[in-house]
Design goal:
Elements: E1 2-6, E2 12-14, E3 19-21, H1 23-31, E4 36-40, H2 48-61, H3 70-79, H4 85-101, H5 103-115, H6 118-142
Helix pairs in contact: 1-2
Length: about 140
C-alpha cells in the first residue's frame, strides 16, 4: 500500500518513493490498479476520495471527450440525499466492475459483429482484391 501525504500547500508526497507527485501520477496508480491512500500530512485524515474526484473533474473539463454527459450528471445529482442513493451506488459499482471484467469479451463480440457486417465483408473483399493485384504485379515483374 502506497501512502501519499497531502500537505497544506496542496502538494502530494509519495512516501514510498520519497518524492513529490502530481495528479497525473495518482491517475497512473489508478490505471495500474495499485493500492494507495492519500492522507492529510497533519491530521492523517483520508483525502483519497477528494483527490480522485479532483482527477475526474479535471478529466471531464479537459479537451478529451467527456465520459459524463450533462444529462447523466444531472441525473446523478438527483440521487444525492435520495432514498435510493445507496442502491444506485451499489448498482454503479457492480455494473462498472462487471463491464471491466468482461471488456475483452465485449471487444471480441463487437469485432465479430463488425467483421460480419456489410462494411466488414466489403473490407475483406477489398483486401482479397488487393492481395490478388499484388500477386499479379509480382508475377508480371518476374517476366
Amino acid at each position: 500500500m502506497i501512502t501519499i501525504k497531502r500537505y497544506p500547500n496542496r502538494r502530494l508526497y509519495d512516501t514510498s518513493q520519497s518524492h513529490y507527485v502530481n495528479l497525473n501520477y495518482i491517475r497512473e496508480l489508478v490505471i495500474a490498479n495499485q493500492d494507495f491512500e492519500i492522507v492529510d500530512s497533519k491530521t492523517l485524515e483520508d483525502k483519497t476520495r477528494s483527490i480522485l474526484v479532483q482527477i475526474i473533474s479535471e478529466e471531464e473539463t479537459s479537451d478529451r471527450q467527456s465520459l459524463l454527459t450533462n444529462n447523466l450528471l444531472k441525473r446523478l445529482i438527483c440521487f444525492y440525499g435520495n432514498d435510493n442513493q445507496d442502491y444506485l451506488q451499489q448498482f454503479l459499482e457492480q455494473s462498472l466492475t462487471t463491464f471491466i471484467e468482461h471488456q475483452d469479451d465485449l471487444i471480441k463480440i463487437t469485432s465479430e459483429i463488425n467483421k460480419n457486417s456489410p462494411f466488414g465483408i466489403f473490407n475483406n473483399l477489398v483486401e482479397q482484391n488487393l492481395n490478388m493485384w499484388n500477386t499479379f504485379q509480382k508475377k508480371k515483374e518476374k517476366k
